[in-house]
Design a protein that fits this description.
homodimer; 365 residues; six-stranded mixed β-sheet; five-stranded mixed β-sheet
Chain lengths: 365, 365
């Protein structure tokens, strides 16, 4: 912060507030009330939060907790926030706020503009890169939580052929998977998608629907399952009844691309290098393209966070960074094959966090 | 929109985009890519979305779908969005955007400011009240989904005394509840909190934790469980082993406050009237205050949406509005009692959507 000339960070989003405070609550699901955490360059953080959160925040390490009775139809914390910002900045102070790619401002735009107007000498500066670099390298405690989430999901995926059957719907199969992951120790499964179709699926972000699986179908399920506020994010593919050569071949190409990504995932390589290693294998394997826009990303307190494995992202991999390898390709019109695994960058070879997918497309009879 | 002088609505958040398009995807869990839907005052909506969403959006009624390969580190859809806005507005056009209470702008602030700078003649105008009034009154199809979510959660809560026991943790009890709700037909349970303590709980937005339930404890669980993108939002309370007079009395007061809220929930009454009806009962019953800031709210595509049952909110209740009645009070230092039920406003008496809580505090032996 000192190097960037920042006097204070103004944090408004759940993962940002949690990262610095430890405040973990599902209450962010409600969009009603804004929450603010100030991290000054000197001194301790200040929470400026709705009164409903006082007891919860008092259980964290944050000592300076300022509350208002929210919602307030006239002044929903803005005067209180202005006062706190004045307390920790000079007249010409610089307030860091995430403004760039992947960031959102979790407060009404009207209120942000009113706040800015009431702090005329102060500058709001983009703190997105700083926050990304801090959060990108995980502690071992964070990695333990992600590994646990990965193991629970891996176990759920491995059990799937035992309960999924021809004639079941995507929705039924995903419901049992979620139940198995909860039983296995997951806290929640905010993200499950399913795609299926004859010989392949045409997208990886919709469903699960009531579509029933028939012979020759390929099913993908992707999940972000959490433990103690940390995500896994990976998928698995299955054929139902039978699979054709084209599908099996696409599976093998994408499996090999994941291996190439894994081998490239060393300290000092860039996110773009990871992309190149995987893309090369898929191009050689007949890829017709990729609608996902990248081949994996950072992972942690959010389903996706930090860098993107894509051309132009020169983020340098460091030990402790948790990364998804997500090679995907269109191998025939409207038919995609996407794999995903989760790893943590270590000195030398990376550590697998998800249990490696089967090298050949599993068939559910 | 014509009355408000709006040429187009610019929608950036999941429920807003879904409300007008029908696009339902869990992919919004990833903060990486922005999504835009334009609803012009004349003509059909235009989706400006990441290419990864093309197949899913094509399955809705939206025909004009413009995509870019996202994420794009240099121009993440902003030029495409600017072009679409130019297509549907004159040089001095007025672009409606939710800016007020409860709203967020789901795109990077930097990109919004760049967009605004590239549309110098056009005005961004607050469309929050318009969107709220549209979404506030539900169709019968919407109400059916909320009722179903309420029934699944009600059934889960009713089954809880059959599996919860002294010595279990909040986390264990909530896990089984979630499994039962999934088995019972819920799509997901994005929101579960649990609070417990001897003779009462001190907050309603944290947990579930590993705290074990002992004799004399009171447990609250509140859930937002979904079906087809629609939420329920209500809670239940239980005593473990035994309950003292003070707790039972607080339960009865808050139960009576819910009844008073229900009786007041008629077309033509205001949200402030609902608050007054419930607050009166709790004041007479010895309330020491309320940290929640309101006594219920609108409900539907979000856990909380629309109006607040509180002084100053003069929203007029209309048939089809789905409302939570959420009376809560502090009845002793650090001890709260909060009830919540879901209703839909009808001509005459409202319809209960959640199954009414027991009139006396249930005790789990």
């Amino acid at each position: 912060m000192a190097t960037a000339g920042l006097d204070v960070l103004l944090l408004t989003c759940e993962p940002e507030v949690r990262y610095f405070s430890g405040f973990l609550s599902r209450f962010w699901e409600s969009p009603t009330r804004p929450w603010f955490l100030l991290v000054p360059v000197r001194g301790k953080p200040i929470a400026v939060i709705p009164e409903i959160g006082a007891a919860g925040m008092a259980a964290t390490w944050i000592e300076d907790i300022r509350t208002w009775s929210a919602p307030d139809l006239k002044d929903d914390g803005i005067s209180l926030l202005k006062g706190a910002l004045d307390d920790v900045t000079e007249a010409q102070g610089r307030i860091g706020l995430a403004m760039d790619l992947e960031s959102h401002l979790r407060m009404p735009l009207r209120d942000f503009e009113a706040l800015r107007a009431r702090l005329p000498g102060k500058a709001f500066v983009d703190a997105g890169p700083l926050l990304r670099s801090l959060r990108g390298v995980k502690s071992e405690a964070e990695i333990d939580k992600i590994r646990y989430a990965c193991h629970v999901a891996s176990s759920g995926f491995e059990a799937l052929p035992g309960h999924a059957a021809l004639g079941q719907s995507e929705r039924e199969i995903c419901r049992q998977l979620k139940i198995n992951m909860l039983s296995g120790g997951a806290d929640s499964t905010p993200y499950v998608i399913a795609g299926s179709g004859p010989g392949g699926y045409d997208n990886i972000i919709m469903g699960p629907t009531d579509r029933q699986l028939g012979a020759g179908d390929v099913l993908i399920i992707d999940t972000g399952t959490t433990y103690d506020g940390y995500f896994c994010d990976f998928d698995r593919n299955w054929a139902f009844g039978r699979s054709d050569d084209e599908v099996r071949r696409a599976y093998e190409v994408v499996f090999a691309a994941t291996e190439a990504g894994y081998q490239a995932a060393r300290p000092g390589a860039t996110a773009a290098d990871l992309w190149a290693a995987m893309a090369r294998v898929m191009e050689a394997g007949g890829s017709l393209g990729n609608e996902v826009g990248r081949l994996g990303h950072g992972l942690g307190m959010q389903l996706t966070e930090g860098h993107s494995n894509m051309p132009g992202d020169e983020t340098i991999l460091q030990p402790g960074m948790v990364v998804t390898l997500e090679p995907g390709m269109t191998f025939a019109p409207q038919r995609m094959m996407v794999h995903e695994e989760n790893i943590v960058i270590r000195e030398g070879e990376a550590e697998w966090l998800s249990w490696r997918a089967a090298p050949e497309l599993p068939i559910i009879k």
